[in-house]
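Chapter summary example.
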Amino acid sequence: MIAGLLSALGAGLLWGLVFVTPLVLHDYPGLMLSIGRYLAFGVLALGLAWFDRRALAELTRADWTEAFKLALIGNLLYYATLSSAIQLAGAPLPTLMIGTLPVVIALCANLIDRRAGDDEGVPWRKLALPLAVMLAGLAIVHADTPSSATSPAADSARYLSGIALAVCALACWTWYPIRNSRWLRARGAGLSRAWATAQGLATLPLALLGGLAYALWDGLGAAPGGGFDWPLGPRPTVFIGMMALLGLCASWLGTLLWNHASHRLPAALVGQLIVFETLSALLYAFVWYRRWPSVAEATGIALLVAGVLLGVRIFRRS
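The structure predicted for these 318 residues follows.
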């Protein structure tokens, strides 16, 4: 359990980098940041595949189909819908919805376990307290975060479209860790690194197609942030460096550590540990803005940590 918890913590610390990147590259459309990140992930996976060539050669057609599904839904579709939701509905409400992921994933994973008769299922009454504490912490953190911009949604149709995309993003990242965990745990140990590389290889052609589609979309003047200097934008060196950092650390290494955690921990507990990503994003944001958290923010963070510890205690006893 300790190894699994440390792996989940490491993945959260790396995934938190994704939230500070838009602050560094504020003049780049969110969709291009998503495409650039996963292009870098795929290119790095090509080189890393040599070290896992034997394990990759043993993957079946069904395994590669699963890798493509995870790459499409958990990587590209998730970030595309999330970035579009923020552009259509503004940042506060979509961010609040995504912040509920630890609670939503834990509920869905436990529901699946209990319906399947899995011995890892936990009675709802035992999960109620840690989930309520985590949800309260997330609500306090997000409620105290000031909105730097008003919602761009001048009409209800545009705003509702953004909310619908945020729901889609929430569904994508709820499905991904549960599906990924169950695939890994149905196979033998030792596939964590190879499976992370396989997802990178599956992501590469999807990201290439996405980049070409964006170029055509932008050429027609219909893409958000129209007039983008495709493909590298106004600051090519910074863009390439940040995308390489995200591709290696946030995508490949983060996925590797998450796979290690998925091998060692129940799916419902792994879902709760995504809270480490939220905490890391808050930490990086405070460093970027050069300030300490407010009293309300510190209270919310303490509740998040307390909820995780309560969840760990429940699953450890099980």
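To summarize the output: Confidence is low (pLDDT under 50) at residues 147-154.
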